[in-house]
Amino acid sequence: MRPDRRRRLAPIAALAAGILLVVAVAWWAARDEGADVPAPGSSSGAVPAELGVLSVTGARQAMLAVVGAGGGAGPAALVLPPGTSVVAPGQGESTTEEVQALPGEGMRIAVSNAVGAWASHFGVVDLDGLSQAVDRVGGLSVDLPDPVTLDGEVVGPGETTMTGPQVAAFLEDAADETSVRWLLVLESLLAGSVLEEGDLLESDDVAAFVDLLGGAEGASPGLMPTQVVGGTTTIAAQPETDELMGQLFGTAVPTPVVVENGSGEAGVGELVGARIIPEGFRIVVSGNAESFRYEVTQITATGDEHVDDADAIRDALGTGEVQVTQVPSGLADVVVVTGRDLEA
Fold first, then answer.
1. Phi first, then psi: what are they for 73, rounded to 5°?
2. Are residues 318 and 221 in the same domain?
3. Which domain holds residue 68?
């Protein structure tokens, strides 16, 4: 290994300056504390579900959810709380609102990275489209824990059939109750076939996504566990989130990876994420290298025990030079610095 590369790896944490470092270190520390968390590459024993990301836009706060169908754990869904900071490959530290504002493919990659498992499909619908879909099926039955006032009318508590505009207002006016209201509506949406192909504004495969939603029928959504770091920033709590993903969807705990852009090419972070997340990896830091002069992608295992992981990343990227350092990054099992050899 080149001496300059060895020197650079030792203080790799300097890349994650400010809150990015706080978030990544908190994730790693929480992961280490979870002695009962399955090792990366293992699973809960259930056949992993096929996952999809549902995004409902138009409200002030993010409404994102992962739904799963076809796995041994049965139909399931998980809501990402609004205002949560996640690592979006190619974007760095981002809130769920910023993730939801990304183009569909970028949103899918960021959510997959956040939950540590690849979503095969995604679908985006806005509040107007959701409202029309609800009216088309004759309303949405929602179990309201408390009465709410919508457009001057008090509805609930208890099982209440809401019109499309009422559902839209219920979500749009949620304020600090967004997570709870989104959970209630999502459970009702998954109780029957509400969304159809024509309702979606964007999707990688409209028919496949709608079929996936149908396969998740009957799921009772859970809420991604979170914790506050630095007194102000909310992140996914670990190991609780990975444990819950395993319980709900039968997914494995992902292997943490640092990814740095060493070529200066735009879109590299998303490209790497799209290729390695499906192979069982999670990007815990995404940023720029100290220079953009890398011709060959460098994939460095932080210890001999992670060489297999580095080899798997090279296979997924289709290029790269694998090397080993005994100097831990402090953040991840593998460090990837992309070069000009990485092609879309």
1. -80, -5
2. no
3. 50-247
pTM reported for the whole predicted model: 0.86
Torsion angle, alpha carbons of 100, 101, 104, 110, to 10: -50
Comparing CA positions, the residue from 237, 125, 227, 234 lying closest to residue 185 is 125
Q: pLDDT by residue (tens digit) across 43-69? A: 445 578 999 999 999 999 999 999 998
Distance in angstroms (rounded) separating the CA atoms of residues 268 and 3: 26
Mean pLDDT, the chain, integer: 87
- Measuring CA to CA, which residue among 120, 117, 113, 104 is closest to residue 235? 113
Indicate the length of the chain as a whole number: 344
Spatial contact of 46 and 250, defined as CB atoms under 8 Å apart: yes
Number of domains in the chain: 2
Both 241 and 257 in one domain: the answer is no
45 in any annotated domain = no
User: Quick count: other Cβ atoms within 10 Å of Cβ 213?
Assistant: 24
State how far the Cα of 179 lies from the Cα of 223, in Å rounded to an integer. Answer: 8
Looking at 247, 269, 296, which one is the last position of a domain?
A: 247
